[in-house]
Amino acid sequence: MTTDAPSPGVKLVRVPDDRAGQRLDNFLLGQLKGAPRSLVYRILRTGQVRVNGKRAKPESRLEGGDEVRIPPVRLGEPVDRGAAPKALLDRLAANIVFEDRLLLAVNKPSGIATHGGSGIGFGVIEGLRQLRPGEPLELVHRLDRDTSGLLVVARKRSALTELQALMREEGGIAKRYLALLVGRMPDGTMTVDQPLQKSVLQGGERMVRVDAGGKPSVSHFRVLERRGGHSFCEVRIDTGRTHQIRVHAAHVGHPVAGDEKYGDREANRRLREQAGLKRLFLHAASLEFALDGGRAPYVLNAPLAPELVAALDALA
Q1: CA-based Rg of the chain, rounded to a whole angstrom?
Q2: Is the pLDDT confidence value at 21 over 70?
Q3: Phi first, then psi: what are they for 106, rounded to 5°?
Q4: How far is CA 171 from CA 8, 92, 236, in A?
Q5: Would you call 80 a catalytic residue per the annotation?
Q6: How far is C-alpha 270 from the chain's CA centre?
Q7: Residue 184's CB: how many other CB atoms inside 10 A?
Q8: Are 26 and 40 spatial neighbours (Cβ–Cβ below 8 Å)?
Q9: Are 24 and 58 in contact (CB under 8 A)?
Q10: Which of 15, 115, 197, 278 has the maximum number of C-beta atoms within 10 A of its C-beta?
Q11: Is 168 exposed, middle or buried (0-12, 13-18, 19+ CB in 10 A)?
Q12: pLDDT tens digits, residue range 197-239?
């Protein structure tokens, strides 16, 4: 029996056991050093990447021993980005809210990307790796660039694997956000159970919409108080889809304040003028989970960003 040889330039990469559970897009970014995210998503979208001979989606989770077909791609000369700006490193160092031998948690400021990429020289993970040279730091999850709050980084591969498994498990990690929603939300808790479909536009921009063919997504919004005709809410999510809170909030007619992608442009303008709000009012406030098979509980908290506190005070 003969097997067709791969085309010239094609790489067949076997997934190491310690990469089990990693997303396909993240695995490719590690294999194609320096490749823009837009290129990685394009070769995935066009079916040039195969896992065990089959097409796979960017969010597919790999297993140890999987064979990934990677097509030849033309990359520019590797760019030496040098050192991250000192101001970024100082901000990150000042915003580390917890660390132990397994993980490190940062209260990520709004406007700083989780990681560098196309058009972004440095993100949180690149900065932390410069602050902690030699440590095998790996992102456990991501936050939108404009969202502030808790971002967890694993310091050991075992912690990364366990945390990523908890992320996929319903109720494995309790996530609590704080958000200012435009308009008057109903009192009590509103549950939004609407499937979400993600698409990647040309250029790599991600857009998400409510779509019956999308992935199950559940968000719970609870009004904490009213401020200036708007609703300051606690949001808990059962699932962790891209832009989930922002799309669900907009779907029920109460978009997140300051959201330039899914929000209300006129309301955003008024909030800039009245409350000085110049960013998305969405903050990842707390995470609760347990490692070591449930024997090591963690409760991590990140205080609300000062500019969001100031905006709330201005609306009082």
Answers
A1: 21
A2: yes
A3: -115, 140
A4: 46, 29, 11
A5: no
A6: 28
A7: 12
A8: no
A9: yes
A10: 15
A11: exposed
A12: 988 775 667 889 999 999 999 999 999 999 999 999 999 999 8
Q: How far apart (Å, rounded) are the C-alpha atoms in residues 256 and 4?
A: 52
Spell out the residues 6+ positions from residue 156 whose beta carbon is closer than 8 angstroms to its own: 101, 102, 136
Residue at 279: amino acid letter = R
In the set 17, 25, 66, 144, the catalytic residue is 144
CA 22/CA 160 separation, integer angstroms: 10
* E-assigned strand segments in 32-173: 50-51, 54-55, 67-70, 96-99, 103-108, 138-139, 148-154
Tokens encoding 75: 């990359």
Would you give the DSSP letter of residue 304?
Answer: P
Angstrom distance (rounded) from CA 291 to CA 298: 8
Whole-number Å distance between alpha carbons of 256 and 12 = 44
Q: Which residues, 6 or more positions from 22, have their beta carbon under 8 angstroms from its beta carbon? A: 15, 61, 62, 164
Residue 80: pLDDT over 60:
no
42 φψ region: left (φ > 0), alpha (ψ -120 to 50), beta (else): alpha
